[in-house]
Amino acid sequence: MKRIICAIVGAVSVMSVVGCGRMSATTEVQPNGNWTRKLVYHYPAPVPKDQGLLMGPQMEKIFGVPSGPEWKIVKTTDKDKDKDEVVMTCTRSYTSGQITPAFGLLKDEMGKATLTDTVIVKSAGPGRWEYRETLHWTGPKSKMTMDKMDNDFTKSFKEALPAGVVTAADVLALQKPIVGDFWHLMFGPSEPMISEIIMHPDYAQRKLQRKAVVILDKRLQEHFGSRLTQEQRRTIVRKLVNSATTTANESSKSKADPGKADKSSDPSEMIPLTFSVKLPGKIVSSNGEVDDVSGEVYWAMYAISPQWEDVTLTAICEVGK
Fold first, then answer.
1. Cα(262)–Cα(12) distance, rounded to whole angstroms?
2. Which of 223, 220, 222 is nearest to 212 (CA)?
3. Closest residue by Cα to residue 28 from 124, 119, 127, 136
4. Are 115 and 137 in contact (CB under 8 A)?
5. For 94-123, what is the mean pLDDT?
6. In 210-241, which positions are buried (b, 16+ CB within 10 angstroms) versus exposed (e)?
7. Which of 301, 308, 298 shows the shortest CA–CA distance to 271?
8. Residue 257: φ, ψ to 5°
9. What is the reported pTM?
10. pLDDT recorded at residue 260
11. In this structure, is the dihedral angle defined by the CA atoms of residues 159, 163, 164 and 165, taken in order, positive or negative?
């Protein structure tokens, strides 16, 4: 978990560079299974060189905008805000069962896709439609990711477990799922905590501890079963959470200066992304959050999230219910 805390600290400086760029993707499904896709990009209007200092990346060069006659694209500039904002809306219709080719939502300075997604709406049985979207990171992975994990987790885990109970195989089996749980807790989906950590660190620390207890206890119970008593699990969880909290406090004292952001980090990693689907019937299953007002299912995350592993968004509805 220490490396996750380091990721949070690094993210602070990257987010300060990214600024106000964001993207939302909405999929609306009809009762016959046909569907419409709408992508909306928001980013600060470019500042002419003779009118001020250009801060951060040029967002229009980071977003991957679709092209082709099938897409309807509308670009406007909102001048009613403190800073001019460009809003680009791209809309296209698809038929049931049609899968989109891997589309580059984000790209690097050379124009190569760094984050792609594929979407399909298909039958999930009589009277049912399934929406499925998969996000895949194709660019270089950030230093924030866990691919090169050191032995922090192994060391902390072994120190927390009762002697003679845990094996090396146990640690290996739990390492990736637990770190993955915390990765998505920070960067989504569905409710990324990174923004809270930056804006309200004291509250976020308590919330993180509460969620960490639930995550760790569940993983330990699933893996060890009766090999650990409830009291043993609680002791292990407390030790691990205390270790992570200590690291967080130490890291917060040396937060990165926004003016000295890590130049090796891809600024697009911390762009906020929101995905939603409006289905034509009762939601019978999903791995997202349900908006009781609009009836939509939604997912919120930062672009870095799929660097850990592919992110799949799913929702199934039953028409006529």
1. 10
2. 220
3. 119
4. yes
5. 93
6. ebbeebbeebbeeebeeebeeeebeebbebbb
7. 301
8. -75, 125
9. 0.85
10. 46
11. negative
